[in-house]
Write a structure and sequence with these properties.
about 180 residues, alpha/beta, three-stranded antiparallel β-sheet, 9 strands, about 40% strand
Length: about 180
């Protein structure tokens, strides 16, 4: 039986989401932004964050894939893209977690190719111990976490445990 340990409480997440929204509101004041939520993991984070953003904004959704269970395959693919025209617009990508930085770089290049005026990343969790040399860093970070497999608050393990109201770590118990 695997064990779940709480790393970040629901209350800490709520406070941090408000702080991130305040920073975005200040940094993008008077500008129109396009939020791009990366499905499925960032859906809860994006929904909570949007409730606190006071900017002129629209939201789009993308779904990417690179994981098999708890391990990245290293091959990124777009499962669902959006059709909106973002040329000349400021884009803020909302992502659940950044590990290697590979996804951020992939998304950055994809959005720049769609002629975005600017691209910034707002991530709930950052695991810098897994970052690859020269990888893109997010501009807005909720929490820096240790090298543990995070689940809950949208993050999953093989499609499960997204519904947890906190961020936890999954401790695998070997038989």
């Amino acid at each position: 039986m695997d064990t779940i340990r709480e790393m970040i409480s629901r209350q800490c997440i709520a406070k941090k989401v408000e702080e991130l929204a305040d920073k975005l509101n200040a940094d993008y004041e008077g500008r129109e932004v396009v939020l791009v939520c990366v499905l499925k993991g960032a859906a809860m984070f994006a929904a909570d964050l949007m409730r606190h953003i006071k900017l002129d904004m629209t939201i789009e959704y993308m779904e990417l894939g690179s994981y098999d269970g708890s391990e990245s395959t290293g091959k990124m693919r777009i499962k669902k893209d959006f059709d909106a025209d973002i040329s000349g617009k400021d884009v803020i990508v909302i992502e659940d977690i950044v590990d290697t930085g590979f996804t951020l770089q992939f998304l950055y290049e994809h959005l720049v190719a769609k002629d975005a005026a600017s691209v910034a990343f707002c991530v709930l969790l950052s695991n810098p111990t897994r970052r690859k040399e020269g990888a893109r860093e997010p501009e807005y970070v909720g929490f820096v976490i240790p090298n543990q497999f995070a689940i809950g608050y949208g993050l999953d393990y093989d499609g499960k445990l997204r519904q947890l109201p906190f961020v936890g770590s999954l401790v695998m118990v070997q038989d």
